[in-house]
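Exercise 7.
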Amino acid sequence: MTTLAITGATGFVGSAVLDEALRQGHTVRALARREQAPRAGVEWVRGDLSDGRALAALVAGADAVIHVAGLTNTPDPREFEAANVTGTANVLAAMDAAGVRRLVFVSSLSARKPELSAYGASKARAEALVEASRLDWTSVRPPAVYGPRDIDMLDLFRAARWGVVPLPPGGATSIIHADDLARLLVTLAGSSCSEAAGPASKKVYEPDDGREGGWSHKELAAAIGRAMGRRVVFAPHLPKPVLDAAAAADRRMRGPKAKLTPDRVGYMAHPNWVARFDRKPPPGLWQPQIAGEEGLKSTADWYRREGWV
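Solution. The predicted structure, written as tokens, is:
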């Protein structure tokens, strides 16, 4: 039986990874900042990425580490460095000290263009640390991740109820359901790569939902409308200056809880966040099982059941 150590296991993606790890029969040791309810197959380790003792306890005796934890949004871009770069360095140091070799690192497509945002730059620097390590690593750059419990795309579903979905400047993006992403991460950590798939060691993968060329922003808006049972009649492309103004307004209204920050606008305005075909995981290793239309519909249904929309 394989023991997987997971950071960020209480977050949106991390909780899906934890569920998938248990489903595949692994035991889990998971890092959490706060006390968690007991769960069969899971050993909770209290601490965070700055806590060396907690990280040492997390990785001790683990067969692999899935490093999901990180900061994706903050009104203070300086915080990305501590969370995403220093935090990753601390995980690497703990693994090195414990003799744990296998690491699956969750990065971001934004690392392709580090000049666009402090978030993307921090993920690119973290990738560089991983690649310079002596570990057996695989980095995964997810595109937009969606699914039940996601709050980042929630506002788009809420807007679609009224037939209006505001969009960034024209472009295209890939998407992936959290359950599909979790299955890839656990598969990589479990070293279940077949010879036909080729070794996943020291590779950078960009998975998606299998839609070649991704989704244009207007196509995605229309699909979210269909998931909500509404026809989107107005999906304007908002130029960057308008998004900048909206970010300032969001900060005034929601303060540190603002979702639209100037840093996030930086990469939202880029026209191409499509996963590259030559960076996709080998089909013998993993393929997406949840098509976009299906996943968006099930996500909308979950939002309704939970009273989120």
